[in-house]
Amino acid sequence: MTDAGDSARKPLGSKPSLFLERQSYRRRRMTDAARLLPFLGAALLVIPLLWPDETVESQAVPLSSAIFYIFACWGLLILVSLFFGLTARRLGRRESPEADAD
Amino acid sequence: MATLNVLILVCLGYVVLLFGVAFAADRMAAAGRGKWLRSPLIYTLSLSIYCTAWTFYGAVGNAARSGLEFVTIYLGPTLVMVSWWWGLRKLVRIGRSQRVTSIADLISSRYGKSNTLAVCVTILAVLGGTPYIALQLQSITLSFSIFAEADPSGLYREGSSVFWVAAGLAMFAILFGTRNLDANERHHGVVTAIALESVVKLFALLAVGIFVVWGVAGGIGPMMDRIDASEIGQWNVDAGRWTTFIFLSAAAFVCLPRMFQVMVVENDDEGHLRTAAWAFPLYLLLMSLFVVPIAVIGLDLMPEGSNPDLFVLTVPLSQGNDWLAMLSFIGGFSSATSMVIVTAMALSTMVSNHLVMPIWLNMQEGSGSVSGDVRNIVLLARRVSIAVIMALGYFYYSLSGGGTALASIGLVAFAGISQILPALVGGLFWRGATRTGALVGLSVGFVLWIYTLLLPGMGAAWMPETVLQNGPFGLGWLRPQALFGIEGIDPMVHTVMWSMSLNTIAFCVASLLSFPSPLERLQGAQFVNVFDHSAAPRGWTGSVAQSEDLMIMTQRILGAGPAQEFFQSEAEQQGGRSRLPEPTPGFLERLERELSGSVGAATAHAMIGQIVGGSSVSVEDLLAVADESAQMLEYSSQLEVKSAELSRTARQLREANTKLTQVSEQKDSFLSQVSHELRTPMTSIRAFSEIMRDTQGLSAEEQTRYAAIIHDEALRLTRLLDDLLDLSVLESGQVNLNMGDDSLRSVLDRAVSSALAGTDQQLSVRRSLISERIPLHTDLDRLGQVFINLISNAQKYCDAAEPVLTISAHDVGGQVVIDFTDNGSGIPPEAQSMVFEKFARVGVDKVGGAGLGLAICREIMQRLGGEISYLPGQGGAAFRISLPLAYRQAAQ
């Protein structure tokens, strides 16, 4: 289904194929991770529901901590997504034929 | 100092700037310059029309009322963007490959280009979009009124200002949103203007936020303390609302017509998604970063009862920072205008393509050629739609009076538009999803949304209090806000939960129970497997005569120039000399897609259908698309058959060649054989006649002996020449047959007695006399000659100690079959194929014979309409003669 399989179909045996194989493997695992990211995000964002709210007067979480947590998660998601975006572009560029035949 | 006049001046100046930017961008794009217009950055910024005035003003209001809950509206889209690898990538790919013009077009296209579905989605979108537009107008008016309060001149009148705002926005949308007919062509002007507005609103909100945190509160630490000390200072979020709103905003982010417009229709490059996947969440994060501080400071500073929705404006104003307030006003203005413009554009495309065009087409009464300039009609329809939609928004605003909190209207719209989600997701990932399922699911969700959320929210005039309390007709379990008797749920959560779950269930069940049409199945396969084959299915067949009609129609939709260009390039591709291409399925498919970029898939399909005469999706097409591997299999099996045929022919040719070589060798050997055969008797005749001539005193006895030898040899020579003559007559086909009637038995009797007469060698012949009682009509003498030949052959060549020849006769399927089998060692296999050739003799020539006997036999049998063949594997030499049983006609 993804275009990650293209390089896997290139003939084996010649020397660069080792790199391509490995690279397409990386690319696929990277895709897997990218697919899992929203689930991680959803899980992180549901955690605050477990916190005690103001009905439990003594233990209520102050809003500043809540803000800190939410925005930290948010930032984390953005950073990971940025990392995936850059990696995907790098791998995608290297995958184009003869771009850098090392 | 911030008088209303200055404000209006700034507003107008800003609008002029937007016009200028849009105009310049359009010009640059038309001239092919301005690569940055298609950059991922512009794409990401254009996505931020998600943040409307509701976000700009309403988020702070929401935070002031219920703390961190506002953030859910941004977290949903963040999750969607982060999971672009799952869904958005596919959505964008489909949108580009199918030339989709709107969300309604996508749904209709997926479910067999059904216009009914498109109409449903359009109505839903208009119903959900109108209050949303009203909300934007309201926010602009509210922000005006804030400044008007401060303005002593008091010239401000609310009603007229809303009207002028609405009119101005409509004009902008018409000018830049309907410049080109093809909705798939990028509206660079609008998109660039929106990107600019995104920057402005982010900048404005950040400026207010920084002013509040560092200017008013005095830094991050003190700000955090003030937050914790405020009335919303503790984590207090309803779990149901939290999750529901995250889900709802995620769903709406994908389904909203304006989001679909910028995300899919205006997308230039799939790769932009990769950047937007992190950049857009970052934008959202920045937009919401200072919301809580502004809300907290607003609650602190502003007098009791002031509208928290306007804190973004009122807080800087109260601090005397008029320029910041002005900037913030421009930010809100930007949010409202960009949203309204894109929504109006998206909705007008939907209305004109799915409501106006089908009606107009129907009015054409299915005539083959389309009259009038469709181009103008579509454009006019789109422009009028924009005006009508803006007018609807304006009336909604004036009717509702604009009292409700901003956030609630936005959420109502979200819940409505999200009803598309099951049909959309199902259509993208499930090939079994059908048009019926989508229709049923959509209707169920739509009705529930109206019944449980829209009507109760619109007040007692629309939904009487008694119905809310006791349910319609006193049916308690149908109470709009407590369906099935489950009470105590937040109305929003209640609606989303019931409408989405029942919508999904209805969609799935109806899909499972119904059967899709061929076109639906084709489109389903195309959508779900878009990454496997982006090529279109073949759905049309046409005749040459229709090309001209198609040309006329296309000219009227695309304009003369582009249409002729398109047809010309198609004709060139087909390699024909004429200006009109053949209406091949491929060409019609491309034409339909080209047209659908202008008028939508369903309409384009219907228009081509009018001319070509209905879609012809055959079972073969379906099979071919559904299972391309079957085609491959068939092809390869055909190849296999062909190659087997070829190898068979090659074998036959090889055999023929061998035979030809043998025959040619035979001819050579025939000549040498003939001269040899003639020479042997001639030599002895000459020798003995010389002896008789030259030798004196031969005894009479000797003379008689020599003369006898000469006579014998002469006889042999004559016999040989007779045989050769006989053979040549037979071979040339000039033989006359004397047909007669007799039984097989008497012919055999005569042959056996004459073959065995005058020989001393013993050959016992075994016959079954009963089976020989077969009547024959044939040349009896010739047949007898064949029998004699076979019997004397057995006599000559059978090498058994006690030679026995068995003659058996059968009647096999209308043929008389006579087998001559001896008990000798038979003919070796390598010689079997040659025994019937001339001068073919087996083994050493020990017994005199010219080797013509069997060749003559074969010729005779062919003349008689039968055949003679050698039977291998009978224990000895075995020959089979077969004759037609009732051979009545003489061969000529």
From TrEMBL, chain A:
Keyword field contains Transmembrane helix: yes
Keywords: Membrane, Transmembrane, Transmembrane helix
Keyword Transmembrane helix: yes
Protein origin, superkingdom: Bacteria
TM stretches of this protein: 33-51, 66-86
Protein name per the record: Solute:sodium symporter small subunit
Organism of provenance: Ruegeria haliotis
UniProtKB/TrEMBL annotation, chain B:
Subcellular location: Membrane
Spans through the membrane: 6-29, 41-59, 71-88, 116-135, 161-178, 199-220, 240-260, 280-303, 323-356, 377-397, 409-430, 437-463
Record-listed E.C. numbers: 2.7.13.3
Signal peptide feature range: none
Catalysis performed (reactions): ATP + protein L-histidine = ADP + protein N-phospho-L-histidine
Keyword Transcription regulation: no
Keyword terms of this UniProt record: Coiled coil, Kinase, Membrane, Phosphoprotein, Transferase, Transmembrane, Transmembrane helix, Two-component regulatory system
Domain Histidine kinase: 673-887
InterPro entries with a match to the protein in the record: HATPase_C_sf, HATPase_dom, His_kinase_dom, HisK_dim/P_dom, HisK_dim/P_sf, Na/Glc_symporter_sf, Na/solute_symporter, Sensor_HK_Regulatory
Domain of life according to the entry: Bacteria
Residues in coiled coil: 636-666
Primary subcellular site in the record, as a coarse category: membrane
Membrane topology: Multi-pass membrane protein
Keyword Methyltransferase: no
Family indicated by similarity: Belongs to the sodium:solute symporter (SSF) (TC 2.A.21) family.
PANTHER family, per database record: SENSOR HISTIDINE KINASE RCSC (PTHR43711:SF26), TWO-COMPONENT HISTIDINE KINASE (PTHR43711)
Protein name: histidine kinase
